[in-house]
Amino acid sequence: MKRSHMIFVMLAVWCLASVSVAQVSQGGSPASLSLTGMSAPETRSLPAVNADVLLAEDEQESKDVPLRFGYPHDVSFNLSNSGTWRDEGRAGLATET
Q: What is the mean pLDDT of the chain?
């Protein structure tokens, strides 16, 4: 009896899961994908990292610390000083980063 209950529960869960992934499609695409006139984004270059110095630091570190995968640069990028914001009407705000 226990096995038949388990099979019933598994079948019910499978049936509910198979219909729960449905989504009604209205067609079309988001308005933000059809925006025109956006200029090329502004780029900013960070200073080069001296890999030899970092490798020497890593050699001196204890072997119990995690591996280093990046280097922290001091930057102050935020929504006020980076990118350009444009009001696109019904599409909302668009940013050119």
A: 79
Q: pLDDT: is 29 or 2 the higher one? A: 2
In contact, 75 and 46? CB cutoff 8 Å: yes
Q: Which two tokens stand for residue 35?
A: 């925006």
Q: State the residue for tokens 């780029």.
A: 43
Q: What are the tokens at 14?
A: 């499978």
Q: What is the 3-state secondary structure (H, E, C) of the chain?
A: CHHHHHHHHHHHHHHHHHHHCCCCCCCCCCHHHHCCCCCCCCCCCCCCCCHHHHHHHHHHCCCCCCCCCCCCCCCCCCCCCCCEEEECHHHCEEEEC
